[in-house]
Amino acid sequence: MRQAYEILLRLYPRDFRASFTAEMLTAFDSSAHERRAMGRSAYLRFALAELASLVVGAGKEWSAKFKTDRSLRGRSLPDRLMMRPPGVPWEAYYGNTLVKAPESALPREVMEAQRRAALLVELIVHAIAHHDFEGARTYSYQERQAREYLRLLREKYKCWSDTWPSA
Amino acid sequence: MSLVDKPRHGYALLKDIDALSNGRVRLSTGTLYGALRRLLEEMWIERFAQEDTSREKQAYRLTAAGRRQLRLELDRMRQLTRAGTARLRAREA
Hints:
The complex is a heterodimer of chains A (167) and B (93). Chain A is mostly helical. Helix content of chain A is 69%, strand content 4%. Chain A folds into 2 domains: 72 residues, no CATH class; 86 residues, no CATH class. The radius of gyration of chain B is 17 Å and the shape is elongated. Chain B has a 3-stranded antiparallel β-sheet with strand order 1-3-2. Chains A and B meet through helix 2 and helix 3 of A and helix 1 and helix 2 of B.
């Protein structure tokens, strides 16, 4: 029965399986153990209901995956390092009209602020990977503050992102 | 509602819902985890790290937003039952 359950779990979207498969199997094992003690017919009813609910549930999850907002669909956080930094016009950012400056050319304050923001992004990713969502929220708050500080420094020194204006 | 008093993991939730409904509602694991996924996305619940937490036994707890939402939902149900009772009484009188 467990084998059938595991096979049907594969019908679910990959992101759902990554989050819940282990837990679902544990809950199924505990429930199955309890129902088995209640008799053969109770166990059979339970098993059929479980397997049917997996088929229906998988359909619902696929439907939810396509119906939910695009930002939630992938069920992962956007890569903030790939986002256009505040204060940089999108024409300049996407038109590649900014050229990369050597780090040494940046003021020390800006360099340090950049490193701190990047470190905080790494800490957020690490915290999420370890299911420490409270920690991730704290780092996210600190990262927002660090980015704001960085934006002010960039305005002060007239430099954006890790780039200098080419013209 | 099962998460109001303390964090619970999947199997504990199934047992609690069974007890809360006097055995009328017996959720399957597929239904339960579909609901947990939706509640997590709405940020009404969150994963909670307990000392003995493992990947197989992840506990969940209600967030402040979830508690607020539950209160709203209970108010709505209270209002509905009050209106229903009032109409029934008026009809019987």
